[in-house]
Design a protein that fits this description.
CATH class of chain A: Alpha Beta
Distance between the termini of chain B: 28 Å
Low-confidence stretches of chain B: 5-39, 321-331
InterPro entries (chain A): ExoRNase_PH_dom1, ExoRNase_PH_dom2, ExoRNase_PH_dom2_sf, PNPase/RNase_PH_dom_sf, Ribosomal_Su5_D2-typ_SF, RNase_PH
Shape of chain A: globular
Distance between the termini of chain A: 84 Å
GO cellular component, one term (chain A): nucleolus
Oligomer: heterodimer
CATH superfamily of chain A: GHMP Kinase, N-terminal domain
Family (chain A): Belongs to the RNase PH family.
Shape of chain B: flat
GO molecular function (chain A): RNA binding
CATH architecture of chain A: 2-Layer Sandwich
Protein name (chain A): Ribosomal RNA-processing protein 41
Strand order of the largest sheet of chain A: 1-2-3-5-4
Number of strands of chain A: 9
Number of domains of chain A: 1
Helix content of chain A: 25-40%
Helix content of chain B: 10-25%
CATH architecture of the domain at 104-254 in chain B: Beta Barrel
Number of helices of chain A: 4
Chain lengths: 260, 331
């Protein structure tokens, strides 16, 4: 044990210099990616994930079409250079399929799929860098990408990971911490404070669960503010550009050239 | 009490520290969320994000882009709030095309099925074009025969582009198209450009003839057909419905000048769309004249720099591809 890096030192700092309840730096990029309907790139510290959303569009797989609502289709690609150990994962990798299923079940109750019968919403996740909190980054990026695609959602979904070091709860874990600590990921809908996902791959003492769960729910609200601000900035920029164009002296829609 | 803070960024600006720290107790823009009726009267547009409460559901009705929960009307998409009397709707900034009856759309055939074609029209489902809603060779009033069903591919094949009008909706919301006008039908002699549907406004006519020898069809679904100009007199008259010409797959000969004009107009549309400028023929024309003055190569148009100068020259604000504006969190 002594050879290991200290998770939480005597001064109360973690290996990357954060305090216990401090989140990593978040950057959000909502610029357009190719022909996608919506796209978002989110960075949590050194974890970076890009999500593109296509749809709602005509379902490709007719057999899986539902006549009363849209189908969510999540596909994940993990870039081989994203991790420390460089190995190529196949698309059918068990862990990746599990991750895709987790994202799908998180968004199923949040996306208003019943508005789009017989359609399909494709969510393509590209993992560019991994340093812990992969699921959390995937979920946050998917929320933002769905919003930029104009897909109706009941609310944002904000995810954050948390762990326990002996009795001390920690938030937003890095790979180093994730490997050593019992940890869980929580996704919350900030308005109603409903929880759409709780996953845990490790064992956690039942007495500790409550602390860390409540902490993660509260941290979700902080992440929500960041995400909301990014979405608002984008909306302001786009609506502003459109207004400027519409108020342009040449832009009177009734002034057709024939009339002149 | 616990407190959170995102990792203090090392980036520029002395005042940026206050921006990057988020204390849960500091409520930033939560003020003014609940509004009363008067707030809609103001000229300013109100923007909203999913999950944001707009107003009480007692006084107002919910429209598209909203839902009701706990006696409140709540937005489900990010965009502008619009109000018509008691009806509240939220229009998403970017979304797929929402069809309405009578809209002119440009689409691409994706499938040939018994007595119908499936058409991709940038909507949430493929549109349907029934065999009975196209003009068949041999007169507009001709009855449809079984032999027509067998040779549907001679009219439209997979991959063909067409211009049509939204005729009706099916129960599941899919749209039904028709091409029963001489202005509608198969498209040739040109190029397709795709833009966000919100940038296309409803116009008196969506068939635009630019003086540079280029015809435009502005589909309300965001598909724009840019093609060689066809003279009015050469367009098929009511009597002379020429099936051969209407369903032909061959382009007319197009001279180099027209080809350059077509690609120039296409590139201008792409640049304007990247800067989120609503498209009208007058703006396009102004831009075209400016581009011709610059005497640049047609492909230079697509460089960011040139595009920004063009948008600025039109008296509009170029959004530097949104990335600068969009970057949040760190600042």
């Amino acid at each position: 044990m002594s050879s290991r890096v200290e998770i939480l030192n005597d001064g109360g700092f973690r290996s990357d210099g954060r305090k216990q309840y401090e989140l990593r730096d978040i950057t959000i990029d909502l610029s357009q990616q190719g022909t996608a309907d919506g796209s978002a790139t989110i960075t949590h510290g050194l974890t970076q994930v890009m999500v593109t959303v296509f749809g709602p569009r005509e379902a490709k797989m007719r057999s899986q079409t539902l006549h009363d609502r849209a189908v969510l289709n999540v596909e994940i690609n993990v870039a081989p250079f994203s991790t420390g150990e460089r190995r190529k994962r196949s698309r059918a990798d068990r862990r990746i399929l599990e991750l895709a299923a987790a994202i799908e079940s998180t968004f199923e109750p949040v996306v208003q799929t019943s508005l789009y019968p017989r359609s399909q919403i494709d969510i393509y996740v590209q993992v560019l860098q991994q340093d812990g909190g992969l699921l959390q980054a995937c979920i946050n990026a998917t929320t933002l990408a769905l919003i930029t695609a104009g897909v109706p959602l009941l609310d944002f979904v904000c995810a954050v990971s948390g762990g326990v070091h002996s009795t001390e709860p920690l938030l937003d874990l890095t790979t180093l911490e994730e490997n050593d600590l019992p940890n869980l990921t929580v996704a919350v809908m900030p308005r109603t404070r409903k929880v759409t996902l709780v996953t845990m791959e490790t064992r956690l003492h039942v007495d500790r669960f409550r602390d860390i769960f409540e902490l993660a729910c509260a941290a979700g609200q902080t992440i929500h503010k960041e995400m909301k601000r990014a979405v608002k900035d984008r909306t302001v920029a786009l609506v502003g550009a459109m207004d400027a164009g519409a108020k342009h002296p040449l832009a009177d829609p009734d002034a057709m050239m024939e009339d002149r | 009490m616990i407190s959170f803070a995102s990792f203090p960024s090392t980036s520029e600006g002395s005042g940026s520290y206050t921006n990057t720290r988020h204390h849960p107790k500091i409520e930033e823009d939560e003020v003014g969320m609940d509004l009363d009726e008067d707030d809609f009267e103001e000229g300013t547009q109100r923007l909203t994000v999913p999950g944001e409460s707009i107003t009480s559901s007692h006084a107002f009705m919910r429209g598209h882009g909203t839902f009701v929960d706990d006696e409140e009307v709540i937005a489900s998409v990010a965009g502008t709030v619009e109000r018509v009397n008691k009806l509240i709707t939220v229009r998403a900034v970017r979304s797929r095309y929402n069809p309405e009856v009578g809209d002119l759309v440009v689409g691409r055939i994706t499938e040939v099925q018994p007595r119908r074609w499936k058409v991709d029209a940038n909507s949430r489902q493929d549109a349907v074009l029934m065999l009975s809603s196209v003009n068949l060779p041999g007169g507009v009033q001709r009855r449809k025969l079984e032999s027509d069903e067998l040779q549907m591919r001679t009219f439209f094949e997979e991959g063909d582009l067409l211009v049509a009008e939204v005729q009706a909706f099916f129960a599941d919301g899919a749209m039904s198209l028709h091409t029963r006008s001489l202005r509608y039908g198969k498209l040739r002699n040109g190029q397709l450009v795709t833009v966000p549907p919100i940038l296309i406004r409803r116009l008196k006519s969506h068939f635009v003839a630019l003086p540079c020898g280029v015809d435009l069809i502005l589909g309300l679904n965001g598909y724009i057909w840019v093609s060689k100009h066809v003279k009015e007199s050469e367009q098929e008259g009511e009597e002379g419905f020429d099936a051969e010409a209407v369903y032909s797959n061959k382009n007319d000969s197009i001279d180099d000048a027209t080809r350059i004009a077509v690609s120039r107009v296409s590139n201008i549309i792409k640049v304007l769309a990247a800067h989120f400028v609503p498209l009208t023929d007058t703006i396009l024309l102004e831009a075209y004249e400016w581009v011709v003055e610059q005497e640049g190569n047609v492909k230079d148009l697509l460089s960011d720099e040139f595009g920004e100068t063009m948008v600025a020259s039109l008296g509009l604000v170029p959004i530097s591809l949104l990335t600068d504006v969009m970057h949040t969190g760190g600042f």
